[in-house]
Amino acid sequence: MHEVAKGLAGIIVTETTASMVDGSAGHLTYRGYAIEDLTTYANYEETAYLLLHQRLPNLHELTDFQQSLGTQMALEPHFVEVMQRFPKNCHPLTILRTLISMLGVYDPTADDNSLETELHKAYRLIAYTPIFTAAWSRLRRGLTPIPPDKNVGLAANLLYMHTGLIPTPAEVAALNVYLILMADHSLNPSTFTSRVVASTDSDIYSAITAALGALKGPKHGGANEATMEMFMEIGNPENVPSFFTEQVKGKGRKIMGFGHRVYRTTDPRSVILRTHAETLAKNSDNTRWFDIAAGLENLALADPYFMERRIYANVDYYSSVLLYMLGIEPDLMPLVFAIGRMAGWVTHILEQRLENRLIHPEAQYIGENDRVWVKLEDR
Ligand SMILES: CC(C)(COP(=O)(O)OP(=O)(O)OC[C@H]1O[C@@H](n2cnc3c(N)ncnc32)[C@H](O)[C@@H]1OP(=O)(O)O)[C@@H](O)C(=O)NCCC(=O)NCCS
After folding, report:
1. Which domain holds residue 206?
2. What's the predicted TM-score (pTM) here?
């Protein structure tokens, strides 16, 4: 019998230079740069370039990259035709997963895994994910998709294509911060999934489709949606104490957006997101959701159950408030997570390709042995 590492906890299966998560110190870096610096000085495209090319772009390279993304941002009619036939009540992440898979159908280079072609597809995936997200957000409301504005960056474009309104600089800045913070996080479940698929020499679209499947669950990328729904269920800051005592304390209900497999201290992304969520809330004169979140966090932080287990707010906690303040409905939140994480997924797929070894763990068999065959008619 071997020791079983349930949930692969603590198992190191590969090396990476993309991001470093220090779960004890609460520190996260991309290619050696602290997220605190990236969220202060960079935008999402700069961060995506850093991940993909392993260094920061100069002005010329950044402009080229943004233009390259911009030229790929287009919603061809075959996608709209299919989307119009999708049931409106389907989970939007299922829609996005299907559309990303379709992107492979229409790419004649889909099965060419050479590095240069893969990089081109990586750009394509980064460009299309906000297009699909915004288009579906409108089509399901019976509205026509809005073509992207090629003169603005990805964050501004997403908000513009979603609402049809020009976003304020503060809104664009907040979304950039969110997308940067989602861009990579070492070997989280969806990134691991994408690397497992890539390790079989399968195509990048299959790997990203699988990653989106892994992201969907409320223990991973679906947590921002579940968190916002929890805040809505609480409804009012005055209801926070009763929610905490009647549902959480001793009642076994998890606080969504709390807890993390790796962080045993405050998730550094949550600290940054809290500030931006608070600013957006104050600017909008609607602090209800922020106040609920902050009130519940304060109760949990002072509670022995959470203190003993070292459970803190994770990235999805305040990001749900931030995204809601930007007009993103809860069930679209995991898609915005995917827009940010796309840079990390494609980076890890390229990294996997460079030094590939098929990922193939083993399981300890604990089932029955030597069973006697019983004929069908005798069962
Ligand atoms: C993220 C998560 C799946 C981590 O899972 P994990 O590493 O397997 O940790 P566990 O679920 O085993 O949790 C360890 C202990 O903390 C408790 N716990 C973990 N997260 C909790 C939460 N959000 N609220 C209350 N208790 C929690 C567990 O009940 C468990 O208690 P026990 O030791 O008495 O059994 C888990 O914290 C969770 O479900 N969080 C809510 C969903 C979420 O926000 N996901 C996004 C992650 S970025």
Report:
1. 35-166+184-215+334-354
2. 0.96
